[in-house]
Amino acid sequence: MKNIQIGNTDIYTSQVALGCMRMADLSSNQATKVIETSFEAGINFFDHAEIYGHGKSEELFCQALKASSIRREDLILQSKFGILETHYDSSATNIYKSLEGILQRLGTDYLDILLIHRPDPLMEVEEVAEAFNSLQKQGKVRYFGVSNHNSSQIALLNQYLATPIQVNQIQFGPGHTLPIDSGLYVNTRFDQAVNRDGYSIEESQLQNVRLQAWSPLKSSLSKGLLKDDPEHVQMVNTIQDLADQYQVSFEAMVLAWILRHPVAFQPIIGSMNPIRIKAMVEGSLIHLSRKEWYDIYSSRQDYPMQ
Ligand SMILES: NC(=O)c1ccc[n+]([C@@H]2O[C@H](COP(=O)([O-])OP(=O)(O)OC[C@H]3O[C@@H](n4cnc5c(N)ncnc54)[C@H](OP(=O)(O)O)[C@@H]3O)[C@@H](O)[C@H]2O)c1
């Protein structure tokens, strides 16, 4: 698998990452198998959040990694903070507390990348920057990023941070194309031209922020898997036909479609099934033609361009 650089950092890592949101549901042996299979398939980037399994996913990952032959220093570990049971909290007190918990559960004395999980309307940007700068100085966090933020929110943080934001994790996949739709429909009256969240993929490129695509196989958070979505039957058939032509799984073809975009998304795949993970990674070896990429995109039910 190809290696990619994260933003302007010295981190060169796998093009595909494994998301550990559902690791808490596994036994320790199953988690070890998932980590080992991913690593053998070329994945050395693992995405966490303190909220995943209420900390259990991070804890289990640590146990499972210890039982494997893989060394922590050969991995890039990312986690997120800020979503509490009843509210979001980006206060300095919570940043320090969350980071200590993350490090303890992951059994490491440094985190490669720490993300703000979601924008907090009560964020005091100078306070966040002071905490981030201090954690970086202490060597506890190498770099910082965000998730589900728009470009202005990133620019604001960058005004105060010693080292700018390097990552933005957003939902993207053939079942969820919002990040690219408004760019395609510029100056039209189609609903897709509406940029409702101020997010701009071009701004991310200008800021050299590495975009990560969460839930690549989903239609939307509430709707579940794209392949089971009755609203996207035509698109699912197009993806499956191409998958058959390339002799890969449906999920691998979804990955190939995401990776074909020049912004070079890092997909965060969420499977906890070693067979599926291995098959999916085959998608990173496929370079779709422009026509094939558009065949998938334009088979969306809501694609009005002719
Ligand atoms: N930043 C954010 O706000 C945010 C939000 C959501 C997620 N994330 C991150 O993104 C990662 C991936 O999210 P995700 O898990 O939703 O991603 P996903 O890769 O789109 O979906 C994975 C899920 O789909 C199931 N699946 C895949 N193919 C299947 C098939 N053919 N038949 C049945 N089930 C199938 C997997 O089950 P198996 O385990 O059985 O394969 C797994 O439960 C998370 O782990 C997390 O790190 C971030």
Give a brief description.
Residues 17-296 form the NADP-dependent oxidoreductase domain. The protein has 306 residues and is α/β, with parallel strands linked by helices.
Care to describe what's here?
The structure is a single chain. The protein has helices at residues 28-40, 56-66, 92-106, 125-137, 151-160, 178-184, 201-206, 233-246, 250-259, 274-281, 290-297, and strands spanning 3-5, 12-14, 17-19, 45-47, 76-81, 111-116, 141-147, 167-171, 210-214, 218-220, 224-225, 266-269. By secondary structure, it is an alpha/beta fold. The protein has one domain (3-228, 261-273): Alpha-Beta Barrel (TIM Barrel). Strands 3-4-5-6-7-8-9-12 form an eight-stranded parallel beta barrel. Strands 1-2 form a two-stranded antiparallel ribbon. It has a two-stranded antiparallel ribbon with strand order 10-11. The chain is globular, with a radius of gyration of 19 Å. The protein binds NADP nicotinamide-adenine-dinucleotide phosphate.
Q: Helices and strands, in N-to-C order?
A: EEEHEHEHEHEHEHHEEEHHEHH
Low confidence ranges = none
Write out the CATH superfamily name: NADP-dependent oxidoreductase domain
- Largest sheet properties: 8 strands, parallel, barrel
Instruction: Name the hetero compounds present.
Output: NADP nicotinamide-adenine-dinucleotide phosphate
Biggest β-sheet: strands ordered side by side in the sheet: 3-4-5-6-7-8-9-12
Please give the count of helices: 11
Structural domain tally: 1
What's the average pLDDT?
96
Radius of gyration: 19 Å
Taken from the alpha-carbon principal axes, the silhouette is: globular
Q: What separation lies between the terminal Cα atoms?
A: 35 Å
So what's the CATH class? Alpha Beta
> Helical proportion?
25-40%
CATH architecture: Alpha-Beta Barrel
Task: Let me know the number of strands.
Answer: 12
CATH topology: TIM Barrel
| Computed structural class | alpha/beta
